[in-house]
Write a structure and sequence with these properties.
alpha/beta, 6-stranded parallel sheet, 5-stranded parallel sheet, 41% helix, 10% strand, globular
Length: 890
């Protein structure tokens, strides 16, 4: 008898089925579950080989993964730990409630930590190692909205005082304050990772774990048992970054990575999956991606009930209930639970007939049971060759009662009335007077109390207090500029792109005897586009398992070489993943005590525009390194068109306070910027990073001009070529458009008798920032001599209008217009890109030499320095269409 898989399942031979089930039970009894699993796997292989279609099951029943008989006893003092946890709950709640009582609308969150407290405290008391001997310890990505609970623990530990807590979300007062969420920029001795932008924690944690292995495999960090712990929300997992890189973790066998997903079933507005089961959905996704999945759904109170469930009916009922119903069970009472959870089947009512309604109501979820959580953590840290995710069922707003426990409003709950505070105080047995409780007073036990002794002893055993952002790591001396002499001398007439000039600088740095091993090239599958394939053989592509195959180009000199100690991170087509690697490398100095110098080279259009949130978080984390936007420029990248041509990344870069953005034209400019960047970030320990635009247009690279002070390149502006005679106009150019300005200079001189100086503008962003600093100082010091911005100083004696041409939007050059009143005519590439060659693109966007010359003549004519009729005729002669549509709107 044969029955197809897609037909309704009917047992065609119940007797035969019973015999098979009985045989399986006998194997389990006599040989154990592992033997049974092995036999079932072999039977499955045989069935498929014979054409049977077997269903794929990615879900296990809606019960705990770890059976009660597999659990070990809890090693800590449960009573003391509960008292400590209760105090943390109180102080975290009081911090938010008190602040909103005295400063209406200041915000804060109570409910997230309320659901997370047990998950964190089991870790703090038994798993989170601050150090492993002399080596750095575990790294923890905290669920951002739970920050009040982390502050509350630091308060009990004595690392924060009462004034800190009173100034939660008050960072600009006389007394020291606490940031709203984890922000290393604001609390550089405390937080390590900014996590409150949903989705960034998971992807950063994955690539952090992989980078840890990278450092170990390259011999830069001794292997230890350290782990990456990431505490995440179930609603947060809807963000694409949260789950987009799961297979990397399993592919790399990252058993140093543990996700703890706080499945309180609620997001900001309501249920995460009201009509479904988010834990089951996540289990299937993670198991399918190759993760070790541990479900912690039910507390110990349920063990006896499940053990007595001989028919499996209770387990079946647990699987039937959708998350929206579970939320109702929290917000109602025991009678409701009896009727709606157990009442569907009379047998289940009999099963719980010995329990009162109150006992039914207080049956705990697994994420609030320390024993269940401890055993899950123990299994996670002991797991090998797989990352682990723990799906912990909790209640959002746990302990808040009618003020918000399990209710849709709970995420926004920031205020409690006197009755609600009294309920909280009573439920968690907080030993403070009633009046103090009403005022949301903080409480810390005496230093000689059992709770305080236990708290400090557990952290002593685990190596110290956490979170704690450690002091900077080992020291780096930047190589002298002369080390990059080859780049300073130009290309001797040979045409090369600025991208190739950069690759040469990078190669020289990677060969440096001291610095080289610290350089981390990060490439999202575009190495050949950027001419970097020569690095494959020299330095190798990192592969945690080595190269398990012989590449088809193995006989070639520049073959695709993967190795376990490879230096290049070839990330595949993922700018987000590459940026996460950049973040791990750029903060290695503080997380591992090892200073690494990452260079992330990517298609410039797919940088700030695509991963801007990750870049902002990188700045928050005080990251260091070089972002390198290859194939830059809206007219320099020929043929690719609208989606690829970047004309605005420099605008976006200007919004990040610690990002120094440069648009270099020549090899020597790149060498100067990179060398000084290493000096400032790694030798002088400045918290900054760099963005370089790199282009694919080939032209001769001149040698560094005699007498040029490198500081002028770094400040953003210097005169590159002086006119023969006194200049009537100044031409600004950046990147390859500097060559158009030089050609424009020639046109003006040869055809119209107008002398012009040409300036290289390496950074409008840096010019603006320095000018703003000078302007602010002058405003605040009216009784002192005014400071002159560098852009004004540099142009002293340079008369006439300024025509600034850029391969980016006009607003890039317009940044310095306030300090050059009435002088600037800006040409840029506002608008959508087009597919064509550079000649036509630059003509379309009006940034070619002819447009530059025409703009100069037009402006001179309006200033009375050139005949308007000749200027009009020049437009015709130069082929500049005065009546075509504005390219910004075309």
């Amino acid at each position: 008898m044969h029955q197809k898989l897609n037909e309704r399942v009917v047992d065609l031979d119940p007797r035969e089925t019973a015999e098979w089930v009985e045989a399986l039970d006998q194997i389990i009894d006599e040989a154990g579950p592992d033997r049974a699993a092995y036999l079932l796997e072999r039977l499955g292989e045989r069935a498929r080989a014979n054409g049977a279609e077997l269903p794929i099951h990615l879900n296990t029943p809606y019960i705990n993964t770890i059976r009660p008989e597999e659990e070990v006893p809890y090693p800590g003092d449960r009573a003391i730990e509960r008292r400590i946890k209760s105090l943390l709950r109180w102080n975290a709640m009081a911090m938010v409630v008190r602040q909103n009582k005295y400063d209406h609308g200041i915000g804060g969150h109570i409910s997230t930590y309320a659901s997370l407290a047990t998950l964190l405290e089991v870790g703090f008391n038994h798993f989170f190692h601050a150090r492993y001997g002399e080596q750095p310890g575990d790294l923890i990505y905290f669920q951002g909205h739970a920050s009040p609970g982390v502050y509350a623990r630091a308060f009990l530990e004595g690392r924060l005082n009462e004034e800190h807590l009173k100034n939660f979300r008050h960072e600009l007062r006389v007394e020291p304050g606490l940031s709203s969420y984890p922000h290393p920029w604001l609390m550089p001795d405390f937080w390590s990772f900014p996590t409150v932008s949903m989705g960034l924690g998971p992807i950063n944690a994955i690539y952090q774990a992989r980078f840890m292995r990278y450092l170990e495999n390259r011999g830069l960090l001794p292997p230890t048992e350290r782990h990456i712990w990431a505490y995440l929300g179930d609603g947060e997992m809807d963000e694409p970054e949260s789950m987009g890189s799961l297979t990397l973790a399993s592919r790399e066998k990252l058993d140093n990575l543990i996700f703890v997903i706080n499945c309180n079933l609620q997001r900001l507005d309501g249920p995460v999956r009201g009509n479904g089961k988010v834990i089951q959905e996540l289990e299937a996704a993670f198991r399918g991606a190759g993760w070790n999945v541990i479900k912690v759904i039910w507390g110990s109170d349920w063990d006896t009930l499940l053990a007595r469930d001989h028919t499996g009916l209770l387990q079946r009922r647990m699987g039937e209930i959708v998350d929206g119903e579970f939320q109702s069970f929290v917000t109602k009472d025991g009678a409701f639970v009896r009727q709606h959870l157990f009442g569907k089947y009379p047998e289940l009512l009999d099963l719980v007939s010995h329990l009162s309604d109150d006992e039914l109501f207080h049956l705990r979820r697994g994420g609030h049971d320390p024993r269940k959580v401890y055993n899950a953590y123990k299994a996670a840290v002991e797991s090998k060759d797989q990352p682990t995710v723990i799906l912990a069922h909790t209640i959002k707003g746990y302990g808040l009662g009618e003020a918000g426990e399990g209710r849709n409003i709970t995420h926004q709950q920031k205020k409690l009335n006197e009755q609600e505070i009294a309920h909280f105080r009573s439920r968690f047995e907080i030993p403070i007077p009633e009046e103090a409780a009403r005022n949301a007073a903080f409480y810390r036990p005496p230093t000689d109390s059992p709770e305080m002794a236990y708290l400090h002893e557990r952290r002593r055993v685990l190596g110290g207090y956490m979170p704690h952002r450690r002091s900077p790591g080992d020291h780096i001396e930047a190589p002298p500029l002369d080390y990059l002499k080859e780049s300073l001398e130009g290309s001797a007439g040979r045409e090369v792109s600025s991208t190739m000039a950069f690759v040469r600088v990078l190669t020289m740095l990677m060969k440096h005897p001291q610095l080289g091993k610290r350089v981390v090239p990060i490439i999202p599958d575009e190495a050949r586009t950027f001419g970097m394939e020569s690095l494959f053989r020299q330095f190798g592509i990192y592969a945690s398992q080595g190269q398990l195959y012989k590449p088809h180009d193995a006989e070639m000199f520049l073959y695709y070489k993967e190795s376990k100690d490879g230096q290049i991170l070839e990330e595949g087509i993922t700018e987000a993943g590459s940026m996460a690697s950049f973040a791990a490398a750029g903060t290695a100095y503080v997380n591992y005590g090892v200073r690494m110098i990452p260079f992330f080279i990517y298609y410039s259009m797919f940088g700030f525009q695509r991963v801007g949130d990750l870049i902002w978080a990188f700045a928050d984390a005080r990251g260091k390194g070089f972002l390198c936007g290859g194939t830059a420029g809206r007219t320099t990248l020929a043929g690719e068109g609208l989606q690829h041509q970047d004309g605005h990344s420099l605008v976006l870069a200007s919004t990040v306070p610690t990002c120094a953005a440069y648009d270099p034209a020549f090899a020597y400019e790149i060498a100067i910027i990179v060398q000084d960047g290493i000096r400032r970030m790694y030798q002088e320990l400045e918290d900054r990073f760099y963005y370089l635009t790199l282009y694919n247009e080939n032209y001769p690279m001149p040698e560094m001009p005699q007498g040029l002070n490198p500081e002028e390149v770094l400040k953003g502006l210097y005169r590159f070529k002086t006119a023969k005679g006194k200049a009537a106009v100044q031409l600004f150019g950046s990147g390859p458009i500097l060559n158009e300005a030089l050609r424009g200079q020639q046109i003006l001189a040869d055809r119209y008798g107008v002398a012009a100086d040409v300036w290289s503008v390496t950074s409008y962003n840096e010019l603006r920032r320095e000018a703003l600093e000078a302007e602010r100082w002058n405003r605040l010091h009216p009784d002192s001599p005014a400071r002159m911005p560098y852009v004004v100083q540099a142009l002293q004696g340079a008369e006439g209008p300024i025509v600034a041409a850029t391969d980016y939007m006009k607003v890039v050059a317009d940044q310095i217009a306030p300090w050059l009143p009435g002088r600037m005519e800006t040409l840029g590439t506002d608008g959508f890109g087009r597919s064509d060659n550079r000649e036509y693109l630059r003509r379309h966007f009006e940034v070619n030499a002819e447009s530059i010359a025409a703009a100069a003549l037009s402006r001179l004519s309006r200033d009375g320095q050139f005949d308007p009729k000749k200027a009009k005729q020049a437009f015709v002669e130069l082929g500049v269409d005065t009546e075509k549509m504005d390219p910004a709107r075309a």
